Structure formats: structure tokens, C-alpha cells
Amino acid sequence: MPAIRPLVPFLALSLLAACGQEPALTLPWGQPEPPVEQALAAARGAVDEAERVAAEVSRLASPDDVDAQVRWRSALGRCRSLQARHDDAIALLDEAVAMTDGVAAPLLRAQALTDRAVVLGAGGRTDEADGDFAAAIGLYEAKGNRAAAEAV
What we know:
Layout: H1 7-18, H2 34-60, H3 66-82, H4 86-99, H5 106-122, H6 126-142, H7 146-151
Helix pairs in contact: 1-2, 2-3, 3-4, 3-5, 4-5, 5-6
């Protein structure tokens, strides 16, 4: 799990902040203190819950609803990546990106490319991730969405 290990403390700290709690530890290294351990447990629970929701959406979404189909694959792919199931994650995101081919939804494609870039990077495939990040930025800029382009 070395590719996601640096991400987990930041995710945990973000969850604490979102809950209005002050973390006792603000550095991503060292032995976690009890509040961070609790946040890590919450992060694992959040991933499990997100996975359950994505599975339910996959069951309910109409096959011709491209937006829903792309989004549940993206969400589930991100969960798989956080679980260090990178091959599964990449396969889901490959499907999500492929579903946006030829669809007049450049922002949806940009988001799917960004999500795939994240899981590719987590899986150690940084050159491919860089290509997806660049493509997503190009789509955001073409739509005039500078904030999204800068966030990538």
C-alpha cells in the first residue's frame, strides 16, 4: 500500500476538519496520535460507505444514463484505489472514460479523466496519469472553467 499511504493521513485530517474537530496531529509523518487513529477508522468507514452507495447506484442507474454510469464507476474506482486494488480501480476508470467518448459532455469527461489520473498515479503509472491530467486541464480550459483547470 505504499502509493496511498501518504494520502491516508491527509484524508483523515480532512475528515476531522469536515466534522469540525481539531486534529491533535497535523503532520503526515510519525506515529499517529489517538484522534488521527480515529479519523483513519472514519476514513475507512467513509470508503466502505462510498463503495456501498456506488454499488447501489450501479444497480439503479439506467444503462443509457451516461452521467450516472460514469459517476458510479468513477466513485467505485476511487474507492478501489484507496483500498490498494489499483487494477480494479483502473479498469473501472477506463470504462468511465470510454463511456464519455463521443458524448457532448466535456466536463464529465474531464472529471473522469481526472479520476483516472488519480488512480493511475496511485498505482504508480505516473506517465499515464500526467497525460490524463493534461487532457482534463485542456477540456476545462476549453470550457472556460479556470477554477477546475487550476484545481487539477
